[in-house]
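This part of the workshop introduces the protein records we will be handling. An example says more than a description, so a record of this kind follows:
>
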Amino acid sequence: MKQRTYTIKQFAALTGVSEDTLRYYEKIGLLPFAMRKNNGHRYYSAEDEERVMVLLCLKKAGMSLEEISPFMKLPMDEDIQNIPVIRDMLLDYKRKVEGQMRELQKILDVITAKLHSGEKLALRRSESNTEAKS
């Protein structure tokens, strides 16, 4: 069975990454050189899609393109447990994301409480704070 391929335009729409950005990531080595048809046009596969999704995930986790680079050079089926430096970097970012999630949950809790309680938007101030400003 023949594997589905995508033109750069289709691939950009599929991944949410612009054509220019795909070319840039290829140029700086974050993505392998795209396969080419006889007419020279790029085409992409499901494996390329997986690579882009990993790249976007790492980027959303807060990694710089420079930090992402070592991950993108690995084969997609590489066991990161065999590469302590990569594993440790991922664990560090995992902790950072978990911290961000806790902070976002606090924000969500406040918003939810405000919506369900019918309270005013302003946070309550203690009487002592109000009196101190008078």
